[in-house]
Amino acid sequence: MPMGKGDTISCFAIKDIRPGEEITFAYFGEFDCLLSHTRHKLLHFVCKCKACLPDNVGEISTDSTPNRNSILTFREVTEDNWRAVANLSLKPGQTGNLAPNVWSLCEAHYSEDAWVRAIYADETLVGMLMMAIWDPDEAYYIWRFMIDGRYQGLGYGRRGVEFAIAHIRQHNPRAKTLGVMSTPPEGKKSENPLKNVKPEDSPHRFYERLGFKEIAPPDEDGEIMMSIDL
Ligand SMILES: CC(C)(COP(=O)(O)OP(=O)(O)OC[C@H]1O[C@@H](n2cnc3c(N)ncnc32)[C@H](O)[C@@H]1OP(=O)(O)O)[C@@H](O)C(=O)NCCC(=O)NCCS
């Protein structure tokens, strides 16, 4: 029987099965957290059992669009999902805060000290987190971080940063700080209209709310270095 990630499981009948006899299968393990149509596709049959009805509680929670209770997972970027990560988009007015994802993925691919993950809310791709590990015993940096405009305001940004901190603490307890370059709170003006950022579109207050503090004056691009102790 095929499983979701290319594996198979084998089931053995304890008695002979006659042609046409109905057999049942319990949706345990990996299957019970899949949507019914995904489950049916994997198993090569359509089922109308209670667990597959649209008003089943599990079905509602997994079918629903990303919400505050969705489970966030941080997955590697692979040949299967990199295009989708590259196609994530921000709200209009936010593009001046960071490079396009396709650029970031390219940079990550060729930088040994980059660590990048695709962020999923349940099974929906919602964002991207890219860190730089230039001096692992000293400081980590959020190099690029974005939540797609459709899924902002659901707490994923906060949980993304909390995940980054937990990840660093787990992998390098000696690291002292996590830094980030942010557009200043007053936004920024540029000759390129796509790089203009209004105050309300700057992530500065977002990082401030999470405990990051300014540690250096604005650089030549007007970006401010912020940092939080680990
Ligand atoms: C910044 C960003 C990652 C926040 O993601 P998000 O999922 O919308 O944030 P959350 O829903 O987790 O918000 C967490 C808190 O920050 C606040 N917040 C979020 N964005 C804010 C902003 N631009 N200004 C002020 N507060 C903000 C929220 O109101 C919330 O406050 P609360 O905890 O008191 O309710 C997202 O807006 C984004 O991708 N922006 C464009 C890209 C960017 O600027 N990236 C950072 C540069 S590396």
UniProtKB/TrEMBL annotation:
SUPFAM superfamilies: Acyl-CoA N-acyltransferases (Nat) (SSF55729), SET domain (SSF82199). Pfam families: Acetyltransf_1. PROSITE patterns: GNAT. Residues 180-202 are annotated as: Disordered. GO terms for molecular function: acyltransferase activity, transferring groups other than amino-acyl groups. It comes from the Eukaryota. Residues 186-202 have a biased composition (Basic and acidic residues). Residues 72-230 form the N-acetyltransferase domain. This is Acyl-CoA N-acyltransferase.
